[in-house]
Specification:
By secondary structure, this protein is an alpha/beta fold. It has helices spanning 2-8, 18-26, 36-49, 65-77, 104-117, 136-148, 162-169, 189-194, 205-221, 231-239, 241-251, and strands at residues 14-16, 54-57, 82-86, 124-130, 153-157, 176-179, 197-201. It has two domains: 2-203, TIM Barrel; 205-256, no CATH class.
C-alpha cells in the first residue's frame, strides 16, 4: 500500500529499509535478525504492486562476500532496482559499537562480489558507509575505494552539514545517496543536487506514523483516550529490545 501511495504522490523512488523489514516481519529491533529469505519475500511482495523503482537496504549483504553474491541474485530476481551494501560490522559483536566498520579491503571485496553476481546491468549496486564515525580523510579513502571497485553510487550516513558533504563529494564522481534522518542542515535539495546527491532518505517517518496511528486507534476502540507516547517510544516498547540485550549478555559475552 505504501508503494502505491508513494507512486501516486509523485515520489520517484522508494526504499525497503532493513529496520522496517525487521519490524514488519519479526516485530524485532534492528539487530540484523531478519534473514535473507525473509527480506527477499518482503521485497517480492512490494515489487509485485509497485509502480516506482524500489531500492533494497541489503544491510551487510547477510554475511561475507559470498553471501553478498547470493543476496544480489535473490534481490535481482525479486525485481529490485538497486540495493545498498554497507561496510558495517554486522551482526554487531558483543561489547562493540553498532557502528563499527569492516576493513576497506573487505568492503571492496563485497562490492566486487556484488558486481560479479549481477546479471542485469541496470541493477544499481550502491556502496554504503557511515561518515559519522570516521574522519573526513577516512570517508574519502573508503568511498573512493568503493568507487574504484565499480560501485554505481555511494550511500553515506552521518553527514553533518553541507561543509562536510562538500569535502566528501569533491573526491567522488559517482552519484550520491544520503541518509539524513531529516537533518535540518541538509534540507536544500538544489544545493544537494549540485553536489551530486540524487537520492535522499529522510528516515521511515511514514511507517512509524502508522505504528502510532494503529496504537491510538486500538486504544480508542477499548474506550481509552489517545496516548502521548511517541512512535519511537511505542516501537521501543513493542520490539522489546531489552530482551535481546539480556540474551546477548547471557549467550554472547565470551569475556566472562
Amino acid at each position: 500500500m505504501a508503494a502505491r501511495i508513494a507512486a501516486d504522490l509523485g515520489f520517484e523512488v522508494g526504499i525497503l529499509g532493513g529496520s522496517v523489514a525487521s519490524l514488519q516481519v519479526l516485530a524485532a529491533p534492528d539487530f540484523a535478525l531478519i534473514t535473507l529469505s525473509e527480506f527477499v519475500e518482503q521485497a517480492t511482495r512490494i515489487g509485485r504492486v509497485s509502480r516506482l523503482p524500489v531500492i533494497a537496504d541489503a544491510d551487510h549483504g547477510y554475511g561475507n562476500a559470498l553471501n553478498v553474491m547470493r543476496t544480489v541474485v535473490e534481490l535481482e530476481r525479486a525485481g529490485i532496482a538497486a540495493l545498498t551494501i554497507e561496510d558495517t560490522l554486522l551482526p554487531a559483536q558483543f561489547g562493540r559499537k553498532s557502528t563499527d566498520l569492516i576493513s576497506v579491503a573487505e568492503g571492496v571485496g563485497k562490492i566486487r562480489a556484488a558486481l560479479e553476481a549481477r546479471i542485469d546491468p541496470d541493477l544499481a549496486i550502491i556502496a554504503r558507509t557511515h561518515a559519522g564515525v570516521l574522519s573526513v580523510e577516512q570517508v574519502i579513502q573508503r568511498t573512493q575505494a568503493y568507487q574504484a571497485a565499480g560501485a554505481d553510487a555511494i550511500c553515506i550516513v552521518g553527514v553533518e552539514d553541507f561543509a562536510h558533504l562538500e569535502q566528501i563529494s569533491a573526491a567522488l564522481s559517482v552519484p550520491l545517496m544520503l541518509v539524513t534522518y531529516g537533518n535540518p542542515k541538509l534540507r536544500d535539495n538544489q544545493r544537494l543536487a549540485k553536489l551530486g546527491v540524487r537520492i535522499v532518505v529522510n528516515g521511515h517517518a511514514a511507517y512509524f506514523a502508522a505504528i502510532k496511528a494503529t496504537y491510538d486507534c486500538l486504544r480508542e476502540q477499548r474506550g481509552a483516550q489517545s496516548s502521548d507516547l511517541s512512535a519511537t517510544e511505542l516501537t521501543h516498547t513493542y520490539t522489546q529490545p531489552e530482551d535481546y540485550i539480556v540474551w546477548a549478555e547471557e549467550f554472547m559475552n565470551v569475556n566472562e
